[in-house]
From TrEMBL:
It is found in: Cytoplasmic vesicle, Secretory vesicle, Synaptic vesicle. The gene is SEPTIN12. Its main location: cytoplasm. One of its GO terms (cellular component) is synaptic vesicle. This is Protein rogdi homolog. Belongs to the rogdi family.
Amino acid sequence: MATAMAATAAERAVLEEEFRWLLHDEVHAVLRQLQDILKEASLRFTLPGSGTEGPAKQENYILGTCGTDQVKGVLTLQGDALSQADVNLKMPRNNQLLHFAFREDKQWKLQQIQDARNHVSQAIYLLTNRDESYQFRTGAEVLKLMDAVMLQLTRARNRLTTPATLTLPEIAASGLTRMFAPALPSDLLVNVYVNLNKLCLTVYQLHALQPNSTKNFRPAGGAVLHSPGAMFEWGAQRLEVGHVHKVECVIPWLNDALVFFTVSLQLCQQLKDKISVFSSYWSYRS
């Protein structure tokens, strides 16, 4: 019995020493690693120009689709803003070619990118709020910090992977359709959003439903991408989506950011798992 108790005491002493090392050394090593990764992610979002304090550089992306070539164009991204959109639309019925581009004095803020960047900045703040001399006292303290960082990283990732669902009236009221010169025809709606590492442009062609129409009018709800046949009311008119054209372009630095988020979340979870192993031991032995 005495030998068993001595073995238990020795085992506990070794584990306590390992846990102290984990709190004093490994936690800070992981925090440094996370800071380095997230600073790289943050740089992807700022995309500085010639000087570190200068405006974000402009990047041109060619819109592409694996289906028809009804829509072609170029989007110009400047940080978290769409600074130019130059689009050609071939009308399905008569093959008429429409060209529309942003007015020179206009930019369209991409809220998803702005929000993701803000969440990354908040995660970095949480990590740098404790310097190298700070001593973590308990595993619970580390778990609380990791949970807070993971919450910001998950929110950042979700803003890029989960586009907002909008109703057609919300798209019509968004103001994006008023960004173009010449003005868009009244039977067109345009939406732009981020989905994973892609910037997506959707053009909806509409037609008015006649007051004596026999169609059962059912307003469409919110969706990332509405389908032909979706109906909505705008002003005094009832409208239906006749054609939908979706084109997109890959933004390489958004892909980098998503990879950084995934790696960072894995590091946080690994540290949490190590802490939990020790916590489970103390609970089991008590």
